[in-house]
Write a structure and sequence with these properties.
Layout lengths: L10 E6 L13 H20 L2 E12 L8 E11 L3 E11 L6 E14 L16 H20 L9 H5 L3
Antiparallel strand pairs: 1-3, 2-5, 3-4, 4-5
The chain binds coenzyme A.
Amino acid sequence: MNSKTPNDSLTIVTDLVLPSETNPIGNMFGGELLARMDRAASISARRHSRRIVVTVSVNHVAFNKMIPLGSVVTVEAKVSRAFKTSMEIYMDVWIEDRESGLRTRANEAIYTFVAVDEMGTPVAVPRLTPETKLEKERFEAALRRRQLSLLLAGKIKPDEASELRALFN
Ligand SMILES: CC(C)(COP(=O)(O)OP(=O)(O)OC[C@H]1O[C@@H](n2cnc3c(N)ncnc32)[C@H](O)[C@@H]1OP(=O)(O)O)[C@@H](O)C(=O)NCCC(=O)NCCS
């Protein structure tokens, strides 16, 4: 199976924050952003695998900045590492200043998707070859994140999380 680059799965979704998507103090609901990120990540995983994909885990989400009503929000998603049937998707969330057009990084998130066939059975995906320095860093760290996620889900034992354990040695 051919190898792909993170740019092959690049997905950029830009949309406004509307009144129905905000909390009582006028900022975007976390759940609304999670849903937008899930859609962007799903398109990215589909572009990498060209398969049906399902979310298996939300590994990390950081809501670092409030996103006010009326903001223009951009979710940028790319596959950061592909394993056998699963793919880690790394997302950066940007908000755009109305007057200057300058973008500020507001949030980030990491989701894992699995490619499946029509029966929902996991199927193999292409390998990923990172190109830029940032893509290479995210690729390396993805193995530790996968081990942590599998450990927390009770799917592997601490002895099997060797890369993760190495961080504490
Ligand atoms: C995703 C799903 C098909 C996986 O099936 P499964 O029988 O658990 O399959 P496996 O154990 O072989 O896992 C498949 C892959 O997912 C990975 N995986 C499973 N749980 C994971 C977790 N918590 N974190 C990270 N990766 C995980 C496995 O490591 C494996 O990856 P690999 O093939 O690249 O090594 C199945 O759990 C499912 O259908 N879940 C529901 C998905 C869904 O509906 N999502 C939307 C929720 S509303």
